[in-house]
Every structure is written in C-alpha cells, then in structure tokens.
Amino acid sequence: MVTPAQNASRPTDPTRRRVLGAAGALAAGGALSACSGFSTPDSGGSGSGSGDGALTMITWASDVESAAFAALADGFEAETGTAVDLQVVPYSEVLTAVDTGLRTDSPPDLFRVSYTDVAAYRRQGVLADLADADTLEPAFLLAFWAAVTDERGTFGVPHHTDTSMVLLNTAAVASAGLGPLPTTLDDAWTWEQFADALARIQPSRADTYAFAANWQNAGAYRWLNFVDQAGGRLLSEDLRSVVTDDPGALKALTFTRDLFRRQLTPANASARGQAASDLFLNQTVATAFAGDFLLSEIEGGGFEYSATFLPRDVNASADLGGNALVAVEASPNRDRALEFLTYCAQAEQMAAFCTAASVLPTRGDIDASSLRYPVRPDLMELYVQQAQAIREPLVQQVVVPSFSAINAQLRDRLDEVFLGGDDDATALRRITDGVAAVLQTS
C-alpha cells in the first residue's frame, strides 16, 4: 500500500498551543447510528466556534497526538491568521459531541472521524465537499481517497492510517522456542504456524494466556481481517447485501472461535471485552494484535517486546485504521475550515504529524520508511510493510454508509458466538442475519 517517494521535513515546533478540554458534561444523545438520522442545521447558523473567530475542531487524541494537532493549529495560524481551538474529548464521546452540536444548531467547524464512520455523515449531508479535491487527489493512495469520496464529491481528507501487527512479550515467548520471527511480509506466519506458535507459549502465571486480538467494541470490524485472509467476504461485491454461507467467513469463524475453545485467549478478550492492548500491557496475554499508534503507550509497560506480521491464509490482509479530518457544511466558517483541511493534507504537515503520532501517511509521495519515528523506529519499519496488506476489497466493505451499525452488530454477534455453544455454521448465520437486518433498515 505505502509506496512513497520522498521524505518531508518537519515544521518548526509550535510556539503556542490552543488545546481545550471538553466543556462540562456533554448532552445525552448517543453516538451516531448510520440509520438513526439527525437534523442538520442550515448553513450560516450560529455554530460553535469560539468567540474570537477561531475555528473549532472536536477530536480525540493521545498526549502525543494533542501536541501534533497543536502544531498543525499553530502552523495554520501563522500562515493564515486563523486560530484553531482543539476540543479534545475521549474517543467514546467524539460522535456524541458532534451529533449534539448538529442537533442543537451549534456544530463544530471541523472534527476527526474514523474511516468507518465517514460515509454515515456523508450520506446525511453533514460534511462539506472539498473544492480543491481534483488538485489533492493525485497525491493520495487510492484506498484512502475512496474512503472519503462518493459520486457526489470528496468530503474530508484522509489524514493518516494505521494498522495492526502481532506484538510479542520477549520474555514470555523466549521459552517457546519460536526461533527468528518473520521480518518480511512475504514470510508472515500462516494461520497454522501462528496457531502452533501460540500453543507453544507456556503461561508463566495462572492468569496468563497466549494471545488477544484487538476486535473489542468499535474494533469489531478487525475480525474481518481473518475473513479477507481466508478469501471470504461479509458483504456482496455490490455492497448491498450480506454474503451468506461464505466458505472463507466460515473458515475464519472456526479459526477465531478455536482461540477461545483452546483457551489460547481469555474470555474477557471477546468482542465486548477488555482492550487487547491493555491485556498485553498488564501481561495477561503474551502476544496481541495492536496498532502502531499504541507504541508510545506500550513503551511504558516496563518489559521488552517485539513485533511480527499478521498471520495470512489465502491472502495477507490488514485492517484499515486511521482517521479523516472533515469540515461541517453547516458551519458559518465553512470555507476557512476547508482551508485548514487542505493545510493538514500537505506533505510537510502530514509527515510531521505521522512522525510525532507513530502513524502512517496516506499520501503516496511521502516515504513512510524514511520518517524519523521517535518511538520504536525498528517496529515502525515493519508496520510500513504491514500496511501494504490493506486490501481494497476489504476497505470497500468497511466504509459503506451503514457500517457504524454493521460494526455494532459485529460486536454483539461476535461476543455471542465466541463464547457460545452453537455449531460454527449456525454461529456464522447469527452474524450474517444481524448484518442483513441492518442493511434492510438502512
């Protein structure tokens, strides 16, 4: 996927940061549902911009991401004279904060959104179309540009991506005799080799397991990696219906259920369970799937770890991570907000953000392998390779307008089938029936 050409220099450090905490308790409203709908205020409404004429952007962010966003805001203000106030809220509250603003005619000017949620906002007319899309498009990798684009236009910029790899606790796996880990994508473990490696890891405490996958809650869609690796699909090629009784999906379900049945992964690592990265950090599991953006946090865990590629079957396949930046059509500051998106989408700014936040660029003219990542650059080199396995057939399925609701169905149904007693074919039908119900009502 990432086939870049040049390295971009980093901008100067920010001299002033305008990072605001979330103001008070947010009004109850629930996260966006792709089928629920909400009223969209007329363009030119009061907006939620700060009183000094600054743009307002709602985002979630780690400490390093907050600093990276602040650098973007400072650079934009220095170049244009327009300030950007960042309202940083917890990830679980971002969509609630945005939706509340939309319902109360006080939308933010900009917000950060996952690729899996872009289409739902796009379909309901919330997002502003990029006027300079034709100029920007050639610089971006196709899969990511497609995630923010439909037949009506392009609604946001694909700001960065991330993906998952297998992290391994060095001490926990040393006694397993696994030998050298695969260091190229072509040499990634097969499913059979991966399962064998997990089975050879001996728990060091009663509460230690071999593995946890990162399919918890909003990450439920990452289970589809296995489906795509097995050559299967959840949605039909026209993306309008569910593929029932798909052999690849059944193979993936059997393989992933066996992780629980063989007690290689703990029950609380199910789709409604504890985050895989937390289980890895507290050493409940010896290995875990984890995104590159988590490396800064995992570095503080106090133990040595390494990484290798996701296992493969028919295909090598990796999850589409990362986020877009979007402007709100109803914002009275719409045009200036779009200017900020264009600023963030430039190669120099994107390279600086990705370097600071340990994520990967979505522009094809940025050589991710030459960025000077401050945290585990040795592992970031592997993540760059892993991102080459983000496959367009899978991307297309996870950016449909109803995917927010589909993802919720995957979370609930996977939680049932991972821990339930149905035979595998019945368990797969439980999943596909739930997704079919979403498509019928969307």
Automatic annotation (TrEMBL):
Keywords: Signal, Transport. Gene3D superfamilies: Periplasmic binding protein-like II. The keyword Transport applies. SUPFAM superfamilies: Periplasmic binding protein-like II. InterPro entries: SBP, TAT_signal. Belongs to the bacterial solute-binding protein 1 family. This is Sugar ABC transporter substrate-binding protein. The lineage of its organism: Bacteria, Bacillati, Actinomycetota, Actinomycetes, Kineosporiales.
